[in-house]
Amino acid sequence: MHSLRPLLHPPENEQILLAQAQRLAGYTLGELAALAGLAIPPDLKRDKGWIGILLELWLGASAGSKPEQDFAALGIELKTIPIDRQGRPLETTFVCVAPLIGNTGVVWETSHVRHKLKRVLWIPVEGERQIPLAERRVGAPLLWEPSEEEEHQLRLDWEELMDLIVLGQVERITARHGEVLQLRPKAANGKALTEAIGTEGARILTLPRGFYLKKNFTARLLARHFHL
DNA sequence: TTATGATCATAC
DNA sequence: GTATGATCATAA
């Protein structure tokens, strides 16, 4: 017998959120999906965000498309992160879409990247593809805030990337720019285009881009916490 | 083997 | 198209 059940509403405080997240540690995705009455896909090929949706459901985050932190009242963003057997991240972490126009005067302090990463509840989940989706286990949660050094690293990369965007060099930016934060396409497909500034300051159409945390960055913050 | 560039589903 | 949730798949 057990009383594990999804939170039906956003948690009223941080303690409730953390307690629920800690209760989920050790369960498989199959168990959590069944208890929540959610159908489990055969794999993630066509359901890349499924684990994120499942954990949102369990933690009472209002699912859907709202440009806000998952737990706005608590100022906390939820991120699931796929890890290998050694606890290292298997994928980069999407942060937010990069604004390609209207950036004159934007600064790090008020940027979307900084706001999104102010406080993050990381939920590690076994992510190796050899493990059937239903058998992958949820790990212990980590409520993280960037250290001074981490924020400095993020800021330097963000400023470099935003400078290039403002100067009309967006199409020359590759994922190799940035030490901990990178810019990569974030689109439904190659036909999805958005407005940007091109060379000579001309208006161009280009692939929407997103900011992503590189694995070296998330690996260090996980290792620091879990003593890996 | 790995990271970059590309892509998938859904709501509005 | 943009927002949410991310992982896939192939070049190197």
Describe this structure in words.
The protein has 228 residues and is an alpha+beta fold. It is 29% helix and 18% strand. The chain has six helices and eight strands; from the N terminus they run αααββαββαββββα. The strands form three sheets. A three-stranded mixed beta sheet has the order 1-3-4, with helices on both faces. Strands 2-8-5 form a three-stranded antiparallel beta sheet. Strands 6-7 form a two-stranded antiparallel ribbon. The protein starts with 13 loop residues before the first helix and ends with a helix. The mean pLDDT is 96. It binds a DNA duplex (12 and 12 nucleotides) through residues 44-53, 56, 63-67, 79-80, 82, 90-94, 96-97, 127, 129, 174-176, 182, 184-190, 192-194, 207-208, 214-215. It is found in: Cytoplasm. Sequence-specific endonuclease that cleaves unmethylated GATC sequences. It is involved in DNA mismatch repair. Pfam families: MutH.
Which structural traits does this protein have?
about 230 residues; alpha+beta; three-stranded mixed β-sheet; three-stranded antiparallel β-sheet; 6 helices; about 20% strand; globular; DNA-binding; nuclease; DNA damage; DNA_rep_MutH/RE_typeII_Sau3AI; cytoplasm; Restrct_endonuc-II-like
